[in-house]
Design a protein that fits this description.
single chain, alpha+beta, 6 helices, 20 strands
Length: about 325
């Protein structure tokens, strides 16, 4: 897996899947995400004839990309990352423990769709994260089609962007790619410009989830497929400055903002220097086709406050890797 470092210093790999909770009926999710290009994975959870959980996979090898279950709010259950081997999982567990990470258990078989072997932990705002290996393989789907292959990044709202940047770099080993003023920070696990990004807000929540398609042509075809299904973007089409990726943002029927994206910038670790982008239309949309984000999409991206969020508290460690912490722009 290209996003992992060598076994001596293992790092989190790409995002495997995102598990979300919603307080809205799941029936409409099937129609929307099938039009999105995903394939529904059978789920057994039902109550009074209505689904209590639905899952969808893409054209890539992951068992599923997104899992929705019913709950009392719309928000995050957990984000799962890849590891290559049990040895890497164990090494990450040991390293996180020595860095002051709140571990939720030892590496073990995972009781979730697709199975796998790994562990979970909690970040300073209460989010649950996971790393796993040996997850069940998905049935092959034709490659090269204009449908999503993976979740390439997740953007999260935070009340303390500096603390989140410090924790995710110093404790978890992600690297800063860029800043959008002092309002957003883009963090990478591998060569993709970002796997996780944080956006400053008044509460912790999910901002949006980006699904990558294989090419710019696939991106445009995907937007066209949604248009034929009667759904237009809330923002886009356009191309971002940070990450250089194409974008088209939508509102799904269960409370979240999915994004089509392609051509995510690939980072050369030996030469890359983080930059600070201005939050102006010419840098948030290089093409000038989407313009600034409309108020409706900004409000939708704020998400619902997570009732499980806690007051941020992390004293730092410095034991993960010397010099990992990145100074925020003033």
């Amino acid at each position: 897996m290209s996003s992992m470092a060598g076994s001596e210093h293992p790092r989190l790999g790409d995002i495997r899947h995102i598990h979300l909770v919603t307080d809205r009926p799941l029936d409409a999710a099937g129609d929307f995400y099938r039009s999105w290009g995903l394939e529904q994975v059978p789920a057994d959870e039902r109550a009074e004839g209505r689904p209590q959980a639905v899952m969808f996979r893409g054209a890539g090898p992951q068992h599923h990309l997104v899992h929705f279950r019913t709950g009392a709010h719309a928000g995050l259950d957990h984000i799962a990352f890849e590891a290559r081997t049990r040895e890497e999982v164990v090494a990450l567990h040991r390293r996180f423990g020595s860095s002051g990470v709140e571990l939720l258990g030892d590496p073990a078989p995972l009781d979730e769709p697709g199975g796998g072997w790994g562990f979970q932990w909690r970040d300073p705002e209460g989010r649950v994260l996971e790393v796993s290996t040996e997850v069940q393989a998905a049935d092959p789907r034709p490659r090269g089609r204009p449908v999503p292959t993976r979740v390439t990044h997740v953007v999260l709202n935070t009340v303390d962007i500096d603390l989140m940047c410090e924790y995710y770099t110093e404790a978890l080993g992600l690297r800063v790619s860029d800043w959008s003023e002092h309002h957003m920070v883009f963090l990478r696990t591998g060569h993709d410009h970002h796997a996780i990004a944080f956006n400053s807000d008044e509460h912790a929540s999910v901002n949006h989830i980006a699904y990558e398609v294989p090419s710019l042509d696939a991106f445009l075809t995907s937007v066209g497929r949604m248009k034929r299904a009667g759904v237009d973007p809330m923002w886009g089409i356009g191309r971002h400055g940070p990450g250089n990726n194409s974008f088209a943002y939508y509102g799904d029927p269960v409370g979240f903002v999915p994004e089509f994206t392609s051509e995510v910038l690939q980072i050369d670790e030996s030469t890359w220097v983080p930059r600070v982008w201005q939050r102006i239309p010419s840098q948030s949309d290089l093409w000038g086709t989407g313009g600034p984000p409309p108020p409706a999409v900004r409000e939708r991206m704020r998400g619902s406050p997570d009732p499980n969020a806690v007051a941020p508290a992390w004293k730092g460690s410095g034991t993960y890797a010397e010099g990992m912490h990145q100074t925020a722009p003033s």
